[in-house]
Design a protein that fits this description.
Elements lengths: L13 E2 L2 E6 L2 E5 L1 H10 L29 H14 L7 H8 L7 H16 L4 E5 L2 E4 L24
Antiparallel strand pairs: 1-2, 2-3, 3-4, 4-5
Helix pairs in contact: 2-3, 2-4
Length: 161
């Protein structure tokens, strides 16, 4: 049998774009640095923050007769946003809708994706809080929403401190 030497490097703080803050009462996981990098990459670091990740009144269509968006940039943006859903489940629906237009993206679709970036700019300090076996999504002003008696309580949370 082969033996491996291990060394204790302490508590985990950063791993694959996830920032982990461990405390006695739970763990807070966010992607604040990754958020800033995405906002900077797409020129939205100082954008106007928006309250919702997608405009509910806007109906995205494949043939919207708008100018075509730069395909590589659009795909890069959508891929970056998909990775953010690890700590932002709230944007999952928006990203799911926007990602349907990866093959034929237009300026309208790109604008919808940039709207999600505006939401990210507003909620840059948000993440996921886990307390023992209770999982919570972090939201500054959203009340807890019980999904079912079998699923954990989920709520968005802002880090304390």
């Amino acid at each position: 049998m082969t033996e491996f030497e291990m060394s204790d490097m302490g508590l985990l703080h950063y791993f694959l774009g996830l920032e982990i803050n461990q405390a006695e009462d739970g763990i807070f996981i966010s992607q604040k640095r990754y958020d800033r990098n995405i906002l900077n990459k797409f020129g939205m670091l100082n954008c106007k923050p928006v309250a919702t990740p997608i405009n509910a009144s806007e109906k995205l269509q494949v043939n919207d007769r708008a100018l075509k968006a730069e395909a590589k940039t659009f795909r890069s943006l959508v891929g970056s946003l998909i990775y953010l859903t690890h700590t932002r489940p709230v944007i999952s629906f928006s990203i799911g809708v926007i990602s349907r237009f990866m093959q034929q993206s237009s300026k309208v679709h790109f604008g919808a994706a940039k709207n999600v970036l505006g939401y990210i700019a507003r909620t840059i300090n948000y993440g996921i809080w886990s307390n023992n076996l209770e999982l919570k999504e972090a939201s500054y002003n959203c009340p807890p929403l019980k999904l079912s008696t079998l699923q954990p309580l989920q709520q968005l949370a802002k880090p304390s401190g």
